[in-house]
UniProtKB/TrEMBL annotation:
Listed name of the protein: Acetylornithine aminotransferase
Cofactor: pyridoxal 5'-phosphate
Enzyme Commission number: 2.6.1.11
Organism listed in the record: Pseudomonas fluvialis
Cofactor binding note of this UniProt entry: Binds 1 pyridoxal phosphate per subunit.
Assigned protein family: Belongs to the class-III pyridoxal-phosphate-dependent aminotransferase family. ArgD subfamily.
Binding positions (N(2)-acetyl-L-ornithine): 142, 281
One Gene Ontology CC term in the entry: cytoplasm
HAMAP family named among the record's database cross-references: ArgD_aminotrans_3
Catalytic activity line of the entry: N(2)-acetyl-L-ornithine + 2-oxoglutarate = N-acetyl-L-glutamate 5-semialdehyde + L-glutamate
Pathway entry: Amino-acid biosynthesis; L-arginine biosynthesis; N(2)-acetyl-L-ornithine from L-glutamate: step 4/4
Protein backbone atom coordinates (compact mmCIF):
# COMPACT_ATOMS: atom_id res chain seq x y z
CA UNK A 1 0.00 0.00 0.00
CA UNK A 2 1.67 3.24 -1.08
CA UNK A 3 1.56 6.24 1.21
CA UNK A 4 -0.74 8.19 -1.08
CA UNK A 5 -3.43 5.53 -0.78
CA UNK A 6 -3.82 5.97 2.97
CA UNK A 7 -6.61 8.37 3.91
CA UNK A 8 -8.24 9.61 7.11
CA UNK A 9 -11.13 7.17 6.50
CA UNK A 10 -8.69 4.28 7.01
CA UNK A 11 -8.43 5.24 10.69
CA UNK A 12 -12.06 4.33 11.24
CA UNK A 13 -11.50 0.90 9.69
CA UNK A 14 -8.23 -0.29 11.21
CA UNK A 15 -7.61 1.63 14.44
CA UNK A 16 -9.09 1.04 17.89
CA UNK A 17 -11.64 3.89 18.23
CA UNK A 18 -10.14 5.49 21.35
CA UNK A 19 -9.07 8.63 19.44
CA UNK A 20 -10.98 11.04 17.21
CA UNK A 21 -8.19 12.53 15.10
CA UNK A 22 -8.55 15.60 12.89
CA UNK A 23 -9.88 15.27 9.36
CA UNK A 24 -6.48 16.00 7.78
CA UNK A 25 -3.25 13.98 7.99
CA UNK A 26 0.03 15.88 8.58
CA UNK A 27 2.86 14.36 6.53
CA UNK A 28 5.84 16.70 6.90
CA UNK A 29 7.10 19.32 9.31
CA UNK A 30 9.89 21.88 9.47
CA UNK A 31 10.40 24.20 12.39
CA UNK A 32 6.95 25.32 13.51
CA UNK A 33 5.28 24.61 10.17
CA UNK A 34 3.49 21.42 9.14
CA UNK A 35 2.10 20.28 5.77
CA UNK A 36 -0.80 17.88 5.30
CA UNK A 37 -1.51 15.35 2.54
CA UNK A 38 -3.00 18.02 0.28
CA UNK A 39 0.06 20.28 0.70
CA UNK A 40 -1.76 22.76 2.96
CA UNK A 41 0.56 24.51 5.42
CA UNK A 42 -0.30 24.94 9.11
CA UNK A 43 1.53 26.67 11.96
CA UNK A 44 2.05 24.36 14.92
CA UNK A 45 1.29 25.81 18.35
CA UNK A 46 0.35 22.36 19.71
CA UNK A 47 3.86 20.92 19.65
CA UNK A 48 2.63 17.34 19.65
CA UNK A 49 1.11 18.08 23.09
CA UNK A 50 4.18 19.82 24.57
CA UNK A 51 6.56 17.27 23.04
CA UNK A 52 8.22 18.94 20.05
CA UNK A 53 10.57 21.10 22.12
CA UNK A 54 12.57 22.20 19.10
CA UNK A 55 9.86 22.01 16.47
CA UNK A 56 9.94 19.56 13.57
CA UNK A 57 13.03 18.12 11.88
CA UNK A 58 15.49 20.20 13.92
CA UNK A 59 18.90 19.64 12.30
CA UNK A 60 20.65 18.79 15.60
CA UNK A 61 18.04 16.15 16.45
CA UNK A 62 18.04 14.68 12.94
CA UNK A 63 21.84 14.47 13.12
CA UNK A 64 21.85 12.82 16.57
CA UNK A 65 19.23 10.28 15.52
CA UNK A 66 20.77 9.34 12.18
CA UNK A 67 24.31 9.11 13.57
CA UNK A 68 23.14 6.82 16.36
CA UNK A 69 20.99 4.83 13.92
CA UNK A 70 24.16 3.87 12.07
CA UNK A 71 25.76 2.56 15.27
CA UNK A 72 23.44 0.87 17.76
CA UNK A 73 19.64 0.88 18.12
CA UNK A 74 18.89 -1.47 20.94
CA UNK A 75 20.89 -3.67 23.27
CA UNK A 76 18.64 -3.94 26.40
CA UNK A 77 19.55 -3.27 30.01
CA UNK A 78 21.58 -6.46 30.22
CA UNK A 79 24.19 -3.98 28.97
CA UNK A 80 24.51 -0.24 29.48
CA UNK A 81 25.20 2.16 26.61
CA UNK A 82 27.09 5.39 26.07
CA UNK A 83 24.20 7.72 25.11
CA UNK A 84 22.24 6.71 28.24
CA UNK A 85 25.21 7.38 30.50
CA UNK A 86 25.91 10.74 28.85
CA UNK A 87 22.28 11.86 29.13
CA UNK A 88 22.07 10.69 32.75
CA UNK A 89 25.20 12.69 33.63
CA UNK A 90 23.70 15.79 32.04
CA UNK A 91 20.39 15.42 33.88
CA UNK A 92 22.15 14.86 37.20
CA UNK A 93 24.47 17.84 36.63
CA UNK A 94 21.54 20.13 35.82
CA UNK A 95 19.14 19.14 38.63
CA UNK A 96 18.80 18.15 42.31
CA UNK A 97 19.03 14.49 41.34
CA UNK A 98 21.86 11.99 41.86
CA UNK A 99 20.26 9.12 39.93
CA UNK A 100 18.20 8.57 36.80
CA UNK A 101 15.93 5.75 35.62
CA UNK A 102 15.06 5.80 31.91
CA UNK A 103 11.82 4.55 30.40
CA UNK A 104 9.67 5.35 27.36
CA UNK A 105 6.86 7.68 28.42
CA UNK A 106 5.48 9.98 31.07
CA UNK A 107 3.13 7.30 32.37
CA UNK A 108 6.10 4.95 32.83
CA UNK A 109 8.13 7.66 34.56
CA UNK A 110 5.26 8.27 36.98
CA UNK A 111 4.69 4.54 37.43
CA UNK A 112 8.35 4.20 38.41
CA UNK A 113 8.13 7.23 40.73
CA UNK A 114 5.04 5.88 42.52
CA UNK A 115 6.42 2.35 42.81
CA UNK A 116 9.69 3.73 44.18
CA UNK A 117 7.83 5.86 46.74
CA UNK A 118 5.89 2.85 48.00
CA UNK A 119 8.99 0.67 48.05
CA UNK A 120 10.99 3.32 49.93
CA UNK A 121 8.26 3.79 52.56
CA UNK A 122 7.76 0.05 52.99
CA UNK A 123 11.46 -0.64 53.53
CA UNK A 124 12.16 2.45 55.67
CA UNK A 125 8.95 2.66 57.74
CA UNK A 126 6.93 -0.55 57.28
CA UNK A 127 4.17 -1.75 55.02
CA UNK A 128 1.37 0.39 56.49
CA UNK A 129 2.91 3.50 54.95
CA UNK A 130 1.61 3.25 51.39
CA UNK A 131 -1.00 6.01 50.99
CA UNK A 132 -0.64 8.43 48.10
CA UNK A 133 -2.15 11.92 47.94
CA UNK A 134 -2.82 13.51 44.54
CA UNK A 135 -4.78 16.50 43.31
CA UNK A 136 -8.24 16.59 41.80
CA UNK A 137 -8.11 17.21 38.03
CA UNK A 138 -4.50 16.01 37.92
CA UNK A 139 -3.24 13.81 35.12
CA UNK A 140 -0.39 11.33 35.59
CA UNK A 141 -0.75 8.81 32.76
CA UNK A 142 -2.92 5.95 31.51
CA UNK A 143 -1.55 2.83 33.17
CA UNK A 144 -3.89 1.36 35.77
CA UNK A 145 -1.78 2.74 38.64
CA UNK A 146 -1.19 6.23 37.19
CA UNK A 147 -4.77 6.65 35.97
CA UNK A 148 -6.01 5.86 39.49
CA UNK A 149 -3.58 8.38 40.95
CA UNK A 150 -4.77 10.96 38.42
CA UNK A 151 -7.70 12.96 39.77
CA UNK A 152 -10.07 12.58 36.81
CA UNK A 153 -12.60 9.75 37.36
CA UNK A 154 -13.70 9.87 33.70
CA UNK A 155 -10.35 8.26 32.83
CA UNK A 156 -10.20 5.73 35.68
CA UNK A 157 -13.81 4.52 35.91
CA UNK A 158 -14.83 1.26 34.27
CA UNK A 159 -11.58 -0.68 34.62
CA UNK A 160 -12.42 -2.79 37.65
CA UNK A 161 -11.50 -2.19 41.29
CA UNK A 162 -9.54 0.98 42.03
CA UNK A 163 -6.03 0.75 43.47
CA UNK A 164 -6.28 1.18 47.24
CA UNK A 165 -4.66 3.92 49.29
CA UNK A 166 -5.08 6.91 46.97
CA UNK A 167 -6.68 10.17 48.15
CA UNK A 168 -7.58 13.16 45.96
CA UNK A 169 -7.71 16.72 47.27
CA UNK A 170 -8.31 20.13 45.65
CA UNK A 171 -5.23 21.65 43.95
CA UNK A 172 -3.71 24.80 45.45
CA UNK A 173 -5.55 24.14 48.76
CA UNK A 174 -2.95 23.78 51.50
CA UNK A 175 -5.53 23.24 54.25
CA UNK A 176 -6.95 20.26 52.36
CA UNK A 177 -3.46 18.78 52.05
CA UNK A 178 -2.83 19.37 55.75
CA UNK A 179 -6.06 17.56 56.61
CA UNK A 180 -5.31 14.60 54.31
CA UNK A 181 -1.64 13.92 55.05
CA UNK A 182 -0.65 11.54 57.84
CA UNK A 183 2.16 9.24 58.89
CA UNK A 184 0.60 6.62 56.59
CA UNK A 185 1.26 8.86 53.57
CA UNK A 186 4.19 7.62 51.49
CA UNK A 187 3.99 10.29 48.78
CA UNK A 188 2.32 13.49 47.62
CA UNK A 189 2.36 13.83 43.83
CA UNK A 190 1.74 17.20 42.19
CA UNK A 191 2.14 18.85 38.81
CA UNK A 192 3.80 22.29 39.24
CA UNK A 193 1.35 23.36 36.54
CA UNK A 194 -1.73 21.19 36.06
CA UNK A 195 -1.57 20.51 32.34
CA UNK A 196 -4.56 18.43 31.24
CA UNK A 197 -6.52 19.90 34.15
CA UNK A 198 -6.56 23.33 32.50
CA UNK A 199 -3.02 24.85 32.53
CA UNK A 200 -3.30 25.86 36.17
CA UNK A 201 -0.03 26.87 37.88
CA UNK A 202 0.64 26.04 41.51
CA UNK A 203 0.77 28.92 43.96
CA UNK A 204 4.21 29.46 45.47
CA UNK A 205 2.97 29.00 49.06
CA UNK A 206 1.20 25.78 48.08
CA UNK A 207 4.33 24.02 46.86
CA UNK A 208 6.36 25.37 49.77
CA UNK A 209 3.70 24.12 52.19
CA UNK A 210 3.55 20.72 50.49
CA UNK A 211 7.33 20.37 50.85
CA UNK A 212 7.11 21.24 54.54
CA UNK A 213 4.23 18.80 55.22
CA UNK A 214 6.07 15.98 53.43
CA UNK A 215 9.13 16.65 55.62
CA UNK A 216 7.00 16.52 58.78
CA UNK A 217 5.36 13.20 57.83
CA UNK A 218 8.34 11.43 56.21
CA UNK A 219 6.48 11.42 52.91
CA UNK A 220 8.17 11.86 49.56
CA UNK A 221 7.25 14.84 47.38
CA UNK A 222 6.93 13.81 43.73
CA UNK A 223 6.73 16.45 41.02
CA UNK A 224 5.19 15.28 37.77
CA UNK A 225 7.11 17.44 35.30
CA UNK A 226 6.15 15.42 32.24
CA UNK A 227 4.53 18.49 30.69
CA UNK A 228 6.36 21.31 32.48
CA UNK A 229 9.87 19.89 32.14
CA UNK A 230 12.79 20.41 29.76
CA UNK A 231 12.66 24.18 29.39
CA UNK A 232 8.93 24.68 28.90
CA UNK A 233 8.58 26.86 32.02
CA UNK A 234 11.57 29.05 31.17
CA UNK A 235 13.65 26.98 33.59
CA UNK A 236 14.99 23.52 32.75
CA UNK A 237 12.43 22.15 35.24
CA UNK A 238 9.58 24.11 36.80
CA UNK A 239 10.63 23.20 40.37
CA UNK A 240 13.57 25.56 39.74
CA UNK A 241 11.14 28.38 38.97
CA UNK A 242 9.48 27.83 42.36
CA UNK A 243 12.67 27.05 44.28
CA UNK A 244 10.98 23.99 45.79
CA UNK A 245 12.90 20.73 45.46
CA UNK A 246 11.06 17.41 45.16
CA UNK A 247 12.37 13.99 46.21
CA UNK A 248 11.41 12.41 42.90
CA UNK A 249 10.74 14.05 39.54
CA UNK A 250 9.23 12.55 36.40
CA UNK A 251 10.15 13.82 32.94
CA UNK A 252 9.12 12.87 29.40
CA UNK A 253 7.37 14.71 26.52
CA UNK A 254 9.85 17.53 25.69
CA UNK A 255 12.82 15.46 26.90
CA UNK A 256 12.93 13.57 23.59
CA UNK A 257 11.85 16.39 21.32
CA UNK A 258 9.50 13.95 19.59
CA UNK A 259 11.34 10.69 20.18
CA UNK A 260 9.68 8.61 22.95
CA UNK A 261 11.64 8.76 26.20
CA UNK A 262 10.84 9.15 29.89
CA UNK A 263 13.02 9.61 32.94
CA UNK A 264 12.57 9.44 36.69
CA UNK A 265 15.05 11.51 38.69
CA UNK A 266 15.78 11.06 42.39
CA UNK A 267 18.44 11.11 45.12
CA UNK A 268 20.97 8.45 46.13
CA UNK A 269 19.19 7.71 49.41
CA UNK A 270 15.87 7.01 47.71
CA UNK A 271 17.24 5.37 44.55
CA UNK A 272 18.94 2.58 46.51
CA UNK A 273 15.51 1.09 47.23
CA UNK A 274 15.19 0.05 43.59
CA UNK A 275 17.82 -2.68 43.93
CA UNK A 276 18.66 -5.10 41.11
CA UNK A 277 15.51 -6.83 39.85
CA UNK A 278 12.93 -4.59 41.56
CA UNK A 279 11.87 -2.65 38.46
CA UNK A 280 12.69 -2.67 34.77
CA UNK A 281 11.85 -1.97 31.15
CA UNK A 282 13.01 -3.57 27.91
CA UNK A 283 13.35 -0.40 25.83
CA UNK A 284 14.09 2.14 28.56
CA UNK A 285 17.34 4.03 28.06
CA UNK A 286 17.80 2.73 24.54
CA UNK A 287 20.64 4.38 22.59
CA UNK A 288 18.41 6.03 19.95
CA UNK A 289 16.18 7.78 22.49
CA UNK A 290 19.06 8.84 24.70
CA UNK A 291 21.13 10.20 21.79
CA UNK A 292 18.19 12.41 20.82
CA UNK A 293 17.52 13.40 24.46
CA UNK A 294 21.14 14.45 24.82
CA UNK A 295 20.88 16.70 21.76
CA UNK A 296 17.70 18.23 23.23
CA UNK A 297 19.24 19.06 26.63
CA UNK A 298 22.40 20.45 24.99
CA UNK A 299 20.29 23.03 23.16
CA UNK A 300 17.54 23.72 25.70
CA UNK A 301 19.71 24.01 28.81
CA UNK A 302 21.39 27.21 27.62
CA UNK A 303 20.76 30.78 28.81
CA UNK A 304 19.73 31.90 25.31
CA UNK A 305 16.99 29.31 24.83
CA UNK A 306 15.63 29.53 28.38
CA UNK A 307 15.55 33.35 28.24
CA UNK A 308 13.93 33.06 24.82
CA UNK A 309 11.11 30.96 26.29
CA UNK A 310 10.18 33.79 28.66
CA UNK A 311 10.39 36.43 25.93
CA UNK A 312 8.21 34.36 23.59
CA UNK A 313 5.82 33.67 26.45
CA UNK A 314 5.26 37.43 26.85
CA UNK A 315 4.63 37.80 23.11
CA UNK A 316 1.98 35.09 23.24
CA UNK A 317 0.39 36.34 26.46
CA UNK A 318 -0.08 39.98 25.50
CA UNK A 319 -1.34 39.18 22.01
CA UNK A 320 -3.67 36.40 23.20
CA UNK A 321 -5.10 38.58 25.94
CA UNK A 322 -5.89 41.28 23.38
CA UNK A 323 -7.60 38.72 21.10
CA UNK A 324 -9.58 37.27 24.00
CA UNK A 325 -10.76 40.63 25.27
CA UNK A 326 -11.63 41.99 21.81
CA UNK A 327 -13.79 38.95 21.01
CA UNK A 328 -15.12 38.01 24.45
CA UNK A 329 -13.87 34.44 23.96
CA UNK A 330 -11.61 34.43 27.02
CA UNK A 331 -10.44 36.94 29.60
CA UNK A 332 -7.58 35.09 31.27
CA UNK A 333 -4.31 33.69 29.93
CA UNK A 334 -2.48 31.60 32.51
CA UNK A 335 0.43 29.20 32.64
CA UNK A 336 4.21 29.31 32.76
CA UNK A 337 6.67 29.89 29.94
CA UNK A 338 5.41 28.27 26.74
CA UNK A 339 2.67 26.24 28.39
CA UNK A 340 -0.24 28.65 28.20
CA UNK A 341 -4.00 28.32 28.62
CA UNK A 342 -6.75 30.68 27.50
CA UNK A 343 -9.64 30.24 29.94
CA UNK A 344 -12.91 30.45 28.00
CA UNK A 345 -15.52 32.95 29.15
CA UNK A 346 -18.87 31.73 30.51
CA UNK A 347 -20.57 32.03 27.12
CA UNK A 348 -17.96 29.72 25.57
CA UNK A 349 -17.48 27.25 28.45
CA UNK A 350 -17.18 23.67 27.23
CA UNK A 351 -16.46 24.73 23.64
CA UNK A 352 -12.66 24.44 23.45
CA UNK A 353 -12.97 21.80 20.71
CA UNK A 354 -14.88 24.25 18.50
CA UNK A 355 -12.00 26.73 18.90
CA UNK A 356 -9.48 24.02 17.92
CA UNK A 357 -11.45 23.14 14.81
CA UNK A 358 -11.87 26.78 13.79
CA UNK A 359 -8.14 27.36 14.28
CA UNK A 360 -7.22 24.31 12.20
CA UNK A 361 -9.48 25.56 9.40
CA UNK A 362 -7.48 28.81 9.42
CA UNK A 363 -4.16 26.93 9.35
CA UNK A 364 -3.02 26.95 12.98
CA UNK A 365 -2.80 23.96 15.35
CA UNK A 366 -3.73 24.51 19.01
CA UNK A 367 -4.85 22.20 21.83
CA UNK A 368 -7.42 22.03 24.58
CA UNK A 369 -6.78 21.39 28.26
CA UNK A 370 -10.23 20.43 29.51
CA UNK A 371 -13.24 21.62 27.49
CA UNK A 372 -12.92 25.10 29.03
CA UNK A 373 -9.32 25.98 28.18
CA UNK A 374 -7.49 26.44 24.87
CA UNK A 375 -3.87 25.35 25.33
CA UNK A 376 -0.72 26.51 23.55
CA UNK A 377 2.48 24.41 23.80
CA UNK A 378 4.63 25.50 20.85
CA UNK A 379 8.27 24.81 20.10
CA UNK A 380 10.59 26.55 22.57
CA UNK A 381 12.46 28.04 19.60
CA UNK A 382 9.37 29.04 17.58
CA UNK A 383 10.39 31.98 15.39
CA UNK A 384 8.91 35.42 15.94
CA UNK A 385 7.53 35.44 12.38
CA UNK A 386 5.71 32.17 13.08
CA UNK A 387 4.31 33.50 16.37
CA UNK A 388 3.07 36.55 14.52
CA UNK A 389 1.53 34.70 11.58
CA UNK A 390 0.11 31.92 13.77
CA UNK A 391 -1.61 34.39 16.08
CA UNK A 392 -3.00 36.30 13.08
CA UNK A 393 -4.56 33.04 11.90
CA UNK A 394 -5.81 32.29 15.41
CA UNK A 395 -7.39 35.74 15.64
CA UNK A 396 -9.11 35.25 12.27
CA UNK A 397 -10.50 31.92 13.51
CA UNK A 398 -11.71 33.40 16.78
CA UNK A 399 -13.35 36.40 15.06
CA UNK A 400 -15.22 34.08 12.68
CA UNK A 401 -16.28 31.83 15.53
CA UNK A 402 -17.55 34.68 17.69
CA UNK A 403 -19.07 36.76 14.86
Amino acid sequence: MSASHVQRADFDQVMVPNYAPAAFIPVRGEGSRVWDQSGRELIDFAGGIAVNTLGHAHPALVKALTEQAGQLWHISNVFTNEPALRLAHKLVDATFADRVFFCNSGAEANEAALKLARRYACEEFGEDKYEIIAALNSFHGRTLFTVNVGGQPKYSDGFGPKIAGITHIPYNDLDALKAAISDKTCAVILEPVQGEGGVLPAQQAYLEGARELCNQHNALLIFDEVQTGMGRSGHLYAYQHYGVTPDILSSAKSLGGGFPIGAMLTTDAIAKHLAVGTHGTTYGGNPLACAVGEAVIDIVNTPEVLAGVNAKSEQFRSRLLAIGQATGLFSEVRGLGLLLGCVLSDAWKGKAKAVLDAAAAEGVMVLQASPDVVRFAPSLVVEDADIDEGLKRFERAVRQLTA
